Amino acid sequence: MGGSSTAAATIEHLHNDNAALIFSPLRFRNLEAKNRLFRSNLSGMFDDYNGHGSNARVNWERKFAKGGVGGIISSYAPVSVRGRILTRYAMIDNDDKIPFWRRIGETAHEHGALFMMQLSHSGRQQDLGGVENVYKKALSSTDRSDYFHGILAQKMSLEDIRTVVEQFAQGARRAREAGLDGVELHGANGYLLTQFLSSGINDREDEYGGSLENRVRFVLDIIRGIRREVGYDFHLQMKINAVDHNDWLYPWQKKGNSLEESLRICRMLLDDGKGVDAFHISSGSTFPHPRNPPGDLPMRELVRWYDGMLSQGTRTRLNYAIFRNPVTAALFRRYWIWRRGKIIEGINAEYAAEVTKAIRAVDPSVKVLVTGGFQHADAIAGAIRAGACDGVSIGRPLIANNDLPQILQTQNGPDPGRECTYCNKCLINDLENPLGCYEMSRFPGETFEAKHAAMIEEVMSVFSPPTFP
Ligand SMILES: Cc1cc2nc3c(=O)[nH]c(=O)nc-3n(C[C@H](O)[C@H](O)[C@H](O)COP(=O)(O)O)c2cc1C
Ligand code: SF4
Q1: Most buried of 193, 285, 290, 427 (most Cβ within 10 A)?
Q2: Ligand 1, from 64, 297, 348, 371: best to mutate by most atoms within 8 Å of Cβ?
Q3: Global model pTM greater than 0.85
Q4: What is the pLDDT of residues 199-230, one digit of tens each?
Q5: Annotation marks residue 191 as catalytic
Q6: Structural contact between residues 233 and 30, judged by C-beta atoms closer than 8 angstroms
Q7: Mutate to test the pocket of ligand 2, among 442, 443, 452 (most ligand atoms within 8 A of CB)
Q8: Domains in the chain, start-ordered, CATH in brackets?
Q9: Which has the closest alpha carbon to 439: 462, 415, 455, 463?
Q10: Using a 6 Å cutoff on CB, does residue 395 contact ligand 1?
Q11: Residue range 171-184, pLDDT digits in tens
């Protein structure tokens, strides 16, 4: 009895240490977050087709702000129609979008959370570009189509590059005018900025391709364009791959950027103190990628919801045939899991530690966040304590438990049966359905029907309160 009460006291003590660290403020150069937990970018098709934001997105973001995160990093906000990945995402392509984002920022601030906008461009990774893009090839650093879905691409001209740089700069200006706390460049997981940075994708022979200095030029142009518009006291961070793992699907593809190359890129993006204020570390040169979001591949859901993409790329029919056949589907899923590796929670922590070390040596005021699987206090505090990062971003575990920060105040993680299982059903449903947790095993009820009803009720809660009460 004495032994077990001592063990309980030790565990409580350890937890208190973890909680004290996680819930200590994080000071960036120009901002302070109340704790070390950030809602990671989570896109959902909640908005109007023309890119105007909806009440559902306000409800969506309110859930996380209320749940207690220190900051929210927005879903993918396209800087232009051409840069969409899916339709019905709130965009930042025009000044007429500023009032919507102001409302979103105010909603986060009401609950003490920061709000940063993720400025984004699909490049060739354009899953469903919408009717406006239907007769156009996607813009990219290359003419080669993406190797996963086979989406056709067109190498950007110098004029295209100047246009897109300006779109990012204006997006940042609009975010600032909307009263948001900062912007993040989506430079990870295969979107346009990765397509320029990656040695596995960028095959240009001009000043924007070839050497690492040339591949970084596009992102540096964007950073300098943004600084021209918003100055140096507005928070600017970059989501970036520490390692590309570009050969995950086809071993004959080039590997893409190594850790060493990415460390050099990160140092260049500091731009002598005038560049980025923080990095958000990810890995994997496509989206999805076995490493992002790290977890399972739900084949039943994939067959049900991938069909909407059949007309999009030259490889989608082949993929669909593989997903539909039970034998090839099982093999593909096993391959996916093997390419991910064993670790899910903290999958990028070791990479982040290297970035932190490299960056700190040059500029200790630049902070590092890391994404990938975090939902337990010991893993989060452990990563911060080990110097791998200053804070973590959390995606799916916050979809599963919007109040995860409150849970982490008093216990190590969600109760058994309530944890995010990393099944990735939220990801696959996102192609056609409202974003939410689709893992039925997590929901209460004795029967299939009862669990399904509970799950649908939670998914649909994003539409409440309604637009017209
Ligand atoms: C449904 C869904 C949508 C996502 N949308 C985005 C996005 O818009 N931008 C982005 O950078 N990452 C996006 N991600 C990746 C997450 O931000 C995060 O990096 C990844 O899920 C790993 O973190 P987690 O294990 O905490 O979920 C998305 C992930 C999911 C599951
Ligand atoms: S569907 Fe739910 S349990 Fe599965 S990964 Fe998404 S949030 Fe986690």
Answers
A1: 285
A2: 371
A3: yes
A4: 999 999 999 999 999 999 999 999 999 999 99
A5: yes
A6: yes
A7: 442
A8: 2-434 (3.20.20.70)
A9: 455
A10: yes
A11: 999 999 999 999 99
